Amino acid sequence: MNKRHFKVMGIVLAVLITAAILFTGCGNVDKPADTASVVASDAAGAGTTAVSAANGTWQWGDPAWEAAVRAKVEGKTFKIGFTPPAASEFYDIIMHGAYTMMNELHDRFGVNFEFEFVAPSEHDAVESQVSTIENWATKEFDAVLVCTAGDFDSMNAVYEKATAAGTAVYLFNMPAELWDVDSIKATSVISYDNARQSGYLVGQYAAEKLNGQGKILFISGNDGHWTTSRREGFMEAVSEYPGLTIVGEQRGEYVRDAGMAAAENLLQANPDVNFIYGENEEMAQGAVQAVQAMGLKLWDGSEGIIVVGADGLKSGFEQIRSGGLTATVDVGSVDQGREAIKAIFMHELLGYSLDKVINVPTILVDKENVDVPEAYVDWALAATESYK
Fold first, then answer.
1. Which residues of the chain have pLDDT under 70?
2. What positions does the domain Periplasmic binding protein occupy (predicted)?
3. How far is Cα 158 from Cα 288, in angstroms, rounded to an integer?
4. What is the 3 state secondary structure string of 39-86?
5. For 73-192+333-360, CATH number?
6. Burial state string for 81-106 with b = 16 or more CB within 10 A and e = fewer than 16
7. Which fold has domain 199-330?
8. Cβ-contact 100, 107 below 8 angstroms
């Protein structure tokens, strides 16, 4: 045979091996491979190991590592408390993200979880949260996940007390970028940034859609760290465009009806605005209702009032599809829940070190790209508690 024949045979052999692998189900979600890896030969005959992502080995290592972890944690029960600043659709998505990771850890390694949710009646009911954290520490919870509107220094004292009692404190959805990282008295902060809680992304979107010229309304939440961070990011972006002017701002209390009332007040004074930024998605959806109630035109892709929020809610994605809400920033709600549980597992149960701040990816979502983030939220919301 000449060199050309060898080359052709090599190509044919590679194709046959690839076909055999696909036929037996390697990498196929419907029929995953039974082993952690497959051995493929290239045309020159050299063996290479290809790891299959279908059985999760990309995330958790090979069977030997998994067996070692299972030997360490199987049968243990880990108690975790989860306290957001209020009950809402947003925090429910984060909690379901946590469910998905606890389910995965339970199924893969045999560790059990007790998970307790307690939320105050409203964002400013911080004393209720403090009592909840202290109660969990008294009950010897292993870890607590906290997102709070409370004063930074006062809450630091609460975290130190819980830690001293043996309960590890992890923060989520908190603007760690506002503080000196070394001053945060929690084990780790699982959140996001992308320039001040993604406020910068919204400002960039406003500049792009308005071609650097337009009038903007800003509906803020309660005075505090979230509003401070998101406003700073938004202002930083729009300040780069002298033609963008913020003509009005009012609090919307992070809820839809107050967001609607704030938008109505602002629109009565400024009916010719081009863009409304609701600091969270509930307030932004309230602003959509206000625009509609006042007979004003919502953005249709070429004209009307653009309304943008931030969170990444199922209800927000549905409004984007229907032409109400123009866009939102998905701040990684599912991943905040997943990464928080993974951080607790890796640090508290396996002894690995952690970054003080773990930021998850975010994405600005409009009609062009809503499919992927919506599917991810749908997957998390479908999760049930099977980690016990």
1. 1-58, 194-195
2. 80-345
3. 39
4. EEECCCCCEEEEECCCCCHHHHCCHHHHHHHHHHHCCCEEEEEEECCC
5. 3.40.50.2300
6. bbbbbbebbbbbbbbbbbbbbbbbbb
7. Rossmann fold (3.40.50)
8. no
- Map tokens 């290239």 to a residue: 42
CA distance 386 to 39: 35
In 10 A of CB 191, how many CB atoms? 23
Describe the strand order of the beta sheet including 275-278 as a list of residue ranges. 244-251, 214-220, 275-278, 306-311, 327-330, 363-365
Q: How far, CA to CA in Å, does 314 sit from each of 191, 195, 334?
A: 19, 24, 12
Q: Report in angstroms the alpha-carbon separations of 213 from 216, 238, 246, 273, 359.
A: 10, 10, 11, 11, 32
Q: What are the CA-CA distances from residue 171 to residues 21, 124, 232, 369 (Å)?
A: 44, 17, 21, 30
Predicted local confidence at residue 340, as pLDDT: 98
Can you give the pLDDT at residue 58? 62
Model confidence pLDDT, tens digit, residues 340-351 = 999 999 999 999
CB atoms within 10 A of CB 54: 16
Q: Read off the pLDDT of residues 142-191 as tens digits, 9 standing for 90 and up.
A: 999 999 999 999 999 999 999 999 999 999 999 999 999 999 999 999 99
- The tokens for 222 are 């309660």
pTM: 0.85
20-63 pLDDT, tens digit per residue, is: 333 333 333 333 333 333 333 333 344 333 444 445 556 788 88
Both tokens of 176, joined, read: 């760690």
Residue type, 60: W
* Paired tokens of 199: 């406020």
**pLDDT value, residue 30:** 33
Query: What is the C-alpha end-to-end distance of the chain, expressed in Å?
Result: 64
- 314-322 and 89-109 are packed helices; what angle lies between their axes, rounded to 10 degrees? 120
The answer to whether residues 322 and 142 touch, using CB atoms and an 8 Å cutoff, is no
Domain ranges of the chain: 73-192+333-360, 199-330
- With CA atoms as reference, report the closest residue to 90 among 111, 119, 110: 119
